[in-house]
Design brief:
heterodimer; A: mainly alpha; 80% helix; flat; B: mainly beta; 23-stranded mixed β-sheet; 23 strands; 11% helix; elongated
């Protein structure tokens, strides 16, 4: 049985207790996929180690992490399921039917990229708290038990919100580009529904931003902004997943078929 | 789960994505291009003749607790739980074009021990532009069978199936009746309507623009989502609830469990709990510009910081309460941006 992600994360960053680490080490030695995951996690740690570190107040991370936690679990599970399915298809050299063979290579990268973009958001947010926790004792050693002023704390919260916003926007842009590139897979009515609802989310994002501009410290406005970003990412993810489904094998022409049938009033 | 290549990609993905050339929402560009593509393939004015049909019928032994999947592109899927251990598949291919088109569509049935997979195969080696065939399925399965249904365009209806059910449609409605173990019901533009749910595990029901309605629900956890559709659950009992919508409203009518956890997050819709004799709950509610009100007598409490904040920032942006009713054993957390938050007594 494979260790879960949290355990592998802890193993990768060296925070696992020695006895558990030894157990994981044994597993990793014999499991290619887990070993690769650990290698990648360490690569991420190395890649992010050079980034500027800030010490946000704990409550800022708690709030941001709480906000993304549920989405994170769902998105990662969905991404992994889809990716595992694609891995199986690639490994077996065929998909669900004879017609699929020519399409595997086309849809897989989009799905992987989509999942990666979202994961980039999660990874960025997930590791930073850990780093800041590690950084905290050093900071405390330097400054003793000094407490940040209320003004500094508020500023940090705003900074972290902006950082989170940048992560989400980055993921959204990537997903939109993917959806854009693969547009023909969707039939017009479905595309219109998605357009309408993306507009609903954009309006909600704009309202949240306006609220934050007028009251930067408003927790409901901050929460709302983050929630709306998450919803937009989820919808774009669903869109990309839908495109991938449409592109798979026998369903490659589904959008055209559906579109044709609807236009004929059937 | 295996995330390895994805995580590796993730390191580079954020930096690798080029910024758009302008600030206009990307999705507008996306949909404009989708619409353009749709116009290009627009209706040519053909195939308006009389309906041509071709019927398919097959019976197979499945076993009382077998597994069935049906995957369709266009057309209705109706599944009914029945007696015995056989699956009965009746399908009707329909077109208003040339009858020869019917031959380009094949009903594929993959029969293995304890499992039957049914799917609609379109012959992609021929011109799909002229291939305008829909397929309606009527399937009877042993009542104890598990069922997984997918449709691109077409409604899904499930009645009397006692095994696990997962149903997804892109543009059709998903309806289940007297089907207790619905695990997943999902649509993009259709409504999701469920009744008679009794599941020890989790139920996830969502639609992007359609309404999600569930009546008579008993589940461990309930996950409801929409962007613009309303979320309504009535006669419901669950231990865990997670409900999210952007512009849709949410209403929960039923019981809350002792120690249950209920999270609702809306933007502009109203969140409304109509509770039948709750033992007690702790309510954390905040909204930027909505109102919070309760028919139940709440004891206002909470940490001093929050109370101090409330005094400091009265008015829009900080309407928040932390309050307890009864024994405070359940946890209700409700966030809205502009929607009202209402706790009512049934």
């Amino acid at each position: 049985m494979h260790p879960n992600d949290e355990t592998l994360n802890a193993y990768a960053d060296g925070s696992l207790p020695a006895n558990e680490a030894a157990e994981i080490e044994r597993h990793v030695a014999s499991c290619v996929s887990c070993r690769q995951l650990v290698d990648d996690l360490r690569e991420i740690l190395r890649a992010t180690a050079d980034l500027d570190l800030q010490d946000p107040p704990a409550r800022a991370w708690m709030r941001i992490e709480r906000a993304i936690q549920l989405e994170q679990e769902g998105a990662r599970a969905e991404g992994a399921r889809a990716f595992q399915a694609s891995e199986r298809d690639i490994a077996s050299g065929h998909g669900h039917g004879p017609a699929k063979a020519g399409h595997d290579g086309m849809w897989l990268p989009w799905l992987a990229a989509a999942a990666a973009l979202v994961l980039a958001t999660f990874v960025g947010l997930r590791y930073a708290p850990g780093r800041s926790q590690l950084a905290a004792p050093a900071s405390q050693a330097r400054d003793g038990a000094a407490q940040a002023s209320a003004g500094d704390a508020a500023q940090s919260v705003e900074n972290e919100l902006r950082q989170a916003e940048a992560h989400y926007e980055n993921a959204i842009k990537g997903l939109e580009q993917i959806a854009n590139a693969e547009q023909n897979a969707l039939d017009p009515r479905t595309a219109a529904t998605l357009q309408k609802n993306l507009a609903v989310i954009d309006q909600a994002i704009n309202e949240s931003r306006a609220a934050i501009r007028s009251q930067p410290a408003s927790e409901p406005a901050q929460q709302s902004l983050i929630e709306n970003f998450k919803t937009k990412i989820a919808l774009l993810q669903d869109t990309v997943a839908l495109i991938n489904e449409m592109r798979k094998g026998n369903e490659a022409g589904a959008a055209r078929i559906v579109s044709g049938l609807k236009q004929k009033g059937n | 789960m295996r995330l390895t290549p994805l995580l590796l990609l993730a390191v580079f993905a954020a930096g690798a994505v080029p910024a758009p050339a302008q600030d206009a929402p990307q999705h507008i560009v996306v949909v404009q291009q989708i619409a353009r593509a749709a116009r290009t393939a627009a209706y040519q004015g053909r195939d308006r003749g009389p309906e041509q049909t071709d019927r398919f019928s097959r019976k197979l032994k499945l076993g009382r607790d077998g597994r069935v999947s049906v995957s369709n592109i266009s057309g209705e899927i109706v599944v009914t739980g029945g007696s015995g251990d056989e699956i009965s598949i009746d399908a009707v291919k329909r077109t208003r074009g040339d009858q020869s088109q019917l031959a380009n569509v094949r009903i594929s049935v993959d029969d293995r021990a304890g499992r039957v997979d049914v799917r609609t195969d379109y012959d992609m080696s021929r011109s799909t532009r002229n291939n305008n065939v829909s397929v309606d399925y009527t399937v009877t399965v042993p009542a104890g069978a598990s069922v997984e249904l997918k449709s691109v365009s077409g409604s899904i209806k499930v009645t009397g199936v006692r095994g696990a059910v997962r149903a997804e449609s892109v543009s059709g409605d998903v309806t289940t009746t007297d089907t207790p173990k619905v695990e997943l019901a999902k649509s993009v533009s259709g409504d999701v309507t469920l009744s008679g749910i009794q599941i020890e595990g989790d139920l996830s029901a969502s639609s992007v623009s359609g309404a999600v309605r569930a009546k008579g629900v008993k589940a461990h956890s309930l996950d409801l989502g929409s962007v613009s559709g309303d979320l309504t659950v009535s006669d419901v009992t669950c231990d865990r609830l997670n409900a999210k919508s952007v512009s849709g409203a949410f209403e929960y009518s039923g019981n809350i469990a002792r120690g249950g956890v209920y999270d609702v997050n809306l933007h502009s819709g109203t969140a409304r709990f109509v509770l039948a004799n709750p033992t007690g709950f702790e309510l954390t509610a905040n909204t930027f510009s909505g109102n919070i009100r309760s028919d139940l007598p709440l004891t206002i409490g909470g940490d001093q910081d929050r109370a101090r904040d409330n005094r400091t920032h009265r008015g829009p942006g900080n309407r928040a309460i932390r309050a307890t009713f009864g024994d405070g054993s359940a946890t209700l957390t409700v966030h809205t941006f502009s929607g009202d938050i209402v706790i009512a007594k049934r």
